[in-house]
Amino acid sequence: MLATETAETGHEAGSARRNAVLESALVLLVEGGERALTTAGVARAANCSKESLYKWFGDRDGLLAAMITFQASKVRAEPQPVGATGLPALRAQLVGIATNLLKVLSGDVSIALNRLAIGKARRDASDLGQLVLDHGRRPIETRLSTLLEAGRDAGLITFDATHEAYATLYGLVVRDMHVRLLLGEPKQPFSPAARAEQAVDQFLRLFGAEKTIGPARERTGSGSPNNAPDIP
Amino acid sequence: MLATETAETGHEAGSARRNAVLESALVLLVEGGERALTTAGVARAANCSKESLYKWFGDRDGLLAAMITFQASKVRAEPQPVGATGLPALRAQLVGIATNLLKVLSGDVSIALNRLAIGKARRDASDLGQLVLDHGRRPIETRLSTLLEAGRDAGLITFDATHEAYATLYGLVVRDMHVRLLLGEPKQPFSPAARAEQAVDQFLRLFGAEKTIGPARERTGSGSPNNAPDIP
DNA sequence: GACGTACCGTACCGTACGGTTCCGTTGCGA
DNA sequence: TCGCAACGGAACCGTACGGTACGGTACGTC
C-alpha cells in the first residue's frame, strides 16, 4: 500500500502529470462519491491509461491514499506570524485558526475524503482513517497546542492538560457540524469567522486567567458581537 | 426504498423473525464493515433465504434502512422523571443525558451504522444519513432542548437561541470523539460520566444565570471532581 | 535511422455481488 | 387429508469493477 507517496519525498509534487490525475480523481470523488471513483473512471477523466494508474499508485488503495496526502499538501497552512502578544493577539490568532478550521472542514473535498476514509475504516489494514487523522487533525492540534501553551506561559489562560484545553476548544468551534455534513445534511450558510469568534470567546471565558476577561455576560445568539477588538 | 419500515407501524417489532435477521445483520456489519454486509452473507448468517430478505426489505437499501430504525428502536431512552427542580437537579439531568449520549455514540453498533450511512452519503439525497440524523440526533436534541428551556424558565440558565445552547453543550460533551472513532482511531478508555460532568459544568459556567455558579475556578484536567452533588 | 522509454487507449479476464427463479419442506387451517 | 402460504436452500443471471495484457504512438538518445 501507499506505493509511491508524495509525503516520503517531501517537497511538493510527485510529478505534474501525477498531480493532474489526482486532481481529476478528487473532482470525480467530490461529485460522485466513492461509487464514481473507479479506476476506469479516473483513467477516462484524467485522459490516462489504467496501466499508468497502476504503475504510479500500485493499487486502488494506493490511489486513495495518494489523494489524501495530495489534498493535505495543498492545505498546508502558512505559519502565522507570532508577533504581537497579549490577550487580543492570542484571541485573534485563535480565531484565525478556528476560522480556517471551519472553512477546511466544510470544504467539498475535505467532506468527500473524510466520507471515503470513514466508509473504508476498519475494513482494511490500509487505514485511510489514520492517514486522514495524521494529515488533518494532527497539524491542527499541534498548531493550537503550541499557541495555547504560549498563552499559558504568558499568563493569559490557565489549564492543566494541553490536550484537554485543545479538545474543548475544538468542540466549541466545530460542535457536531462535521458529522452532520458527513451524514449529508445540506450545509446551511453561516459565517465561519463569526462562529470562530463566538467559540473562542466561550473558550476564553472557560480558560482565561482570572481577571483578563472583561464583561461577564455575552450574548450567544447573534453572530459577531461588537466586543471584538481589532487585530493589533 | 424503505420498503417496509418498522417505524411506520409504530409500536415495536415488524416480526420476531425479521428482528432476528436484523440482529444478525448488525453483528455482521459491526465485525466486518459494509464489505461484509452482502445479501448472501446476511442470509447465511441469519439462516434465512435471500428471497425472504427481498420480500421483507424489498432491497438492499431497504435492509440498511431497517437496520438503522431497528437499532434506534432499541436505544429509545426512558423518559427521565422530571421531579426535582433547582440547579443540582438540572445538572444531574444534563449529566445523565450527556453520559448516555457518550455511551451510545461510542457503541460498536452506532459506529458501524454511522460509518455505513456516511460512506453512502453524497451531495444528492442519500437517505441513510437523513435517517441516522432523524433517529439519532433529533431525539437527543429535543430532549436536551426541552430540558434547557425548562432550566431557563426556572431562571437557572440564560440563553437566547435554544439551538445555540444545545449545540454548544453538544460540542462540549462530544468534542471530536465521534469523528475520531468513525475514522477508526482505537477507542481509548474513558469515563463517560466524568466527561459528561466536566462538560456540563463547563456549559453551566457559560450559560448559568448570574450567581448560581459556585466556585469560579475549575480544574479541567482531572476526571470527576468532588463538587458533584448527588441526585436529589 | 534504430532503439528504449513512457505513455494512451482498449480489449480482456476473473470474480463478486445484487437480484431472480425454482424447488423442497414445514406447518397451519379448513 | 388436502391445500396453501411461508420459508429455507441453492442454483442462476447480468453486470460492474479491479487488475492485466497488448498494440500503438510520441519523444528523446545514441
Chain-wise SSE layout:
The structure is a homodimer of 232-residue chains.
Chain A: H1 6-9, H2 16-36, H3 39-46, H4 50-57, H5 60-75, H6 87-105, H7 108-120, H8 128-153, H9 162-174, H10 177-182, H11 192-207
Helix pairs in contact in A: 2-3, 2-5, 2-7, 4-5, 5-8, 6-8, 6-11, 8-9, 9-11
The structure holds a DNA duplex (30 and 30 nucleotides).
Keywords:
232 residues; 65% helix; homodimer; disordered C terminus; 0% strand; mainly alpha; DNA-binding
Textual characterization of the structure:
The structure is a homodimer of 232-residue chains. The first copy, chain A, is mainly α and 232 residues long. Chain A is built from 11 helices and no strands. In chain A, helix 2 crosses helix 3. Residues 1-12 and 212-232 of chain A have low confidence and may be disordered. The structure holds a DNA duplex (30 and 30 nucleotides).
The biggest sheet of chain A amounts to: none
Q: How many β-strand runs of chain A?
A: 0
* Chain pair forming the biggest interface: A-B, 52 and 52 residues
Q: Can you give the mean pLDDT of chain A?
A: 86
User: Over all CA atoms, what is the radius of gyration of chain A?
Assistant: 20 Å
Individual helix count of chain A: 11
Terminal CA distance of chain A reads 48 Å
* Beta-strand fraction estimate of chain A: under 5%
- What are the low-pLDDT stretches of chain A, counting only 5+ consecutive residues below 50? 1-12, 212-232
SS class of chain A: mainly alpha
Spatial shape of chain A: elongated
Order of helices and strands of chain A: HHHHHHHHHHH
Oligomeric state:
homodimer
Report helical residue fraction of chain A: 55-70%
